[in-house]
Amino acid sequence: MSILINTINMKINTTTPEKQAFTKVLINLAEKPKALYYIGKLPESWSAAVAIVGTRRPTNYGKEVTYKLANDLAQKGVVIISGLALGIDGIAHQAALDAGGTTLAVLASGVDNVTPRSHIGLAKKIIEAGGAIISEYEPSSEARDFQFLARNRIVSGLADAVIVTEAASRSGTLATVSHALSQGKEVFVVPGNITSPMSAGCNALIKQGAQVLTAASDVLEVIAPGLLRPQTILPLGDNPLETKIIQLLQSGVRDGDTLLTETHADASDFAQALTMLEINGLIRSLGGNTWTLR
């Protein structure tokens, strides 16, 4: 179908795992890809990389932690790898782009036949930002169910560690974890609400011995300790109200109505403060009148 090629007019490159420094690690897979097709640019040398995976239907919590972890890691120079699917995958890719980092998307279809179609624009951004979309399947190949499971071994295979941010008890994400464990990769899991079905898979993995992840530094300490630097001081707003909002968000408050109540501010002043904080890049909306720090 060549949908992506027609949209952005970019060349499909062909290689094999052993010919590229970054993909050479794939020669150790039990089922090594015979060929790799990609549009964009692969890292020219080894670089710390993590795969971030999870549900296609994340909660606000899942969206928030995925964005923060991917953004924080990308800012440190870590390559973010995922599968360009709806939900966690797309959020991880976008967060890496927002951080000015590099992200790679591994597809279960031909690289010129992006699935889902709604992520063609995201695929274009990944390529334009210096990343790539990759597949072991020939151009124009349609995505089939078994190919999604098969491509997960490449997602985990390219990464130094796999991060699961939110997943139900019966999730395709668990297949990626299985590949990661068989490949000897580190697996990190974000703990979730014990009453949320969308966190059941994560909490079960933690019970089974997966490493608990609460901050990007947890991963960096294991895969790239040299990238760790002293944490920066929490930014201040341009006035006391903005600073109070930042402090409340840091403490875990997300709901806009709760923020308004806790600041004891006039509604119009509060709305203006939120607007200015968002314009200045200090906070971002999660939708549904919920907010978080960038």
Question: How would you characterize this protein structure?
Answer:
With 294 residues, this protein is of the alpha/beta class. The protein folds into two domains: 3-227, Rossmann fold (3-Layer(aba) Sandwich), CATH 3.40.50; 240-293, Winged helix-like DNA-binding domain superfamily/Winged helix DNA-binding domain (Arc Repressor Mutant, subunit A, Orthogonal Bundle), CATH 1.10.10.10. It has eleven helices and eleven strands. The strands form two sheets. A nine-stranded mixed beta sheet has the order 1-2-6-5-4-3-7-8-9, with helices on both faces. Strand 5 (103-106), helix 4 and strand 6 (132-135) form a beta-alpha-beta unit. Helix 2 (60-75) runs parallel beside helix 3 (88-98). 43% of the residues are buried. The model has no long low-confidence stretch (mean pLDDT 89).
Instruction: Give a quick account of the main beta sheet: strands, pairing sense, barrel closure.
Output: 9 strands, mixed
Q: What integer value in Å does the Rg equal?
A: 20 Å
Spatially, the strands of the biggest sheet line up as 1-2-6-5-4-3-7-8-9
| Beta-strand fraction estimate | 5-15%
Uncertain ranges? none
CATH fold name of the largest domain? Rossmann fold
CATH architecture of the largest domain: 3-Layer(aba) Sandwich
In total, how many domains does the architecture comprise? 2
CA-to-CA gap between the ends?
38 Å
> How do the SSEs run, as a string of H and E?
HEEEHEHEHEHEHEHEHHHHEE
Shape summary: globular
- How many DSSP H or I helices? 11
Helicity, as a percent range: 25-40%
Secondary structure class reads alpha/beta
The number of distinct β-strands equals: 11
At the first level of CATH, the class of the largest domain is Alpha Beta
In round numbers, the mean pLDDT is 89
